[in-house]
Amino acid sequence: MSSPKAAAKPARRPASAKLKVVAAKPAPKPKTVANGLSGDAIKLADEIERAFKKSDEAISEQAMQKLMGALCRVYSAQVENGAKYTPIAEGQVVSPTGVMVTASGLLRAANLAVFELGMWQSWTGR
Questions:
Q1: Does residue 22 carry a pLDDT above 50?
Q2: Which tens digit of pLDDT belongs to each residue from 83-125?
Q3: Cβ–Cβ < 8 Å for 92, 98
Q4: Could you tell me which residue, 56 or 11, shows the higher pLDDT?
Q5: How far is Cα 108 from Cα 116, in angstroms, rounded to an integer?
Q6: CA–CA dist 57, 48 (Å, integer)
Q7: 17: which of 5, 29, 48, 95 is 20 to 30 A away, CA to CA?
Q8: What is the mean pLDDT of the segment spanning 7-35?
Q9: Residues 6+ apart with CB under 8 A from 87
Q10: Which of 75, 79, 68 is nearest to 108 (CA)?
């Protein structure tokens, strides 16, 4: 029977064993079209972010609702047509609370409950 101290010691690697260190390759970034409507949308998003840092009232309720509605329609249509990206890019800073508040508001605007979202996700696999 071994002592508790002996059981707690990690096994040693032989000096001849070398570990390979492999640098992870960053995921390829999707190509962004920065001209036309896409370029205008990126500029608008940047302008909204800058203005919002100065004032919580930088964008009106009506403008927010119009933009959110348009983005929901466009995103859902693209997903229905086979797009696989998420609505928020990886690495973009959006708090979990911000995501939950927005998701909750979208569900409330469509008169849906979280239960219905869960059922829809289980049926569609999304």
A1: no
A2: 999 999 888 888 989 999 999 999 999 999 999 988 888 998 7
A3: no
A4: 56
A5: 12
A6: 11
A7: 5
A8: 53
A9: 71, 75
A10: 68
CB-based burial of residue 115 (10 Å sphere; 0-12 exposed, 13-18 middle, 19+ buried)? exposed
pLDDT over 50 (residue 65): yes
Distance CA(120)–CA(78), nearest Å, equals: 18
- The rounded distance, in Å, linking the Cα atoms of 98 and 103 is 8
CB atoms within 10 A of CB 62: 8
In 3D space, the residue among 98, 24, 54, 108 whose CA is nearest the CA of residue 87 turns out to be 98
Q: What DSSP assignment string belongs to 33-49?
A: --SHHHHHHHHHHHHHH
Tens digits of residue pLDDT in 32-54: 557 799 999 999 999 999 999 99
Q: How far is CA 55 from CA 43, 58, 59, 73, in A?
A: 18, 5, 9, 28
Which residue type does 70 have?
A: A
CA–CA dist 57, 86 (Å, integer): 27
